[in-house]
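Shapes recur. Our protein:

. . .
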Amino acid sequence: MKLGWLSPEKKRKLTIVGSQGAVIFDDTLREKVHFYKYLERKISEPSYPSYSSEEPLLAELREFISCLTKKRQPKTNFVHGAWVVKVIQKMEESIIKDGIIIEFS
């Protein structure tokens, strides 16, 4: 596996496998998000969930400003943030170990 901004190949793909299905994000495709549901002994045809094309940092800033101006609690909290950090750590661990599957809860 090669990581780096200077690589001449554009590969931006993330696969997440769970107990009920799998999600594949591939930034090089027209339909970037594919969802596969596990059925009895087979995998469904992909579905293509809709999502916002707004840049994540811009969405975070809008949410932060909204919480300040409307004096409300954010949609997510430190528990969610800690979970995201754990997921990223497990992804890095998988990359270091040549892409082995790492299960966690």
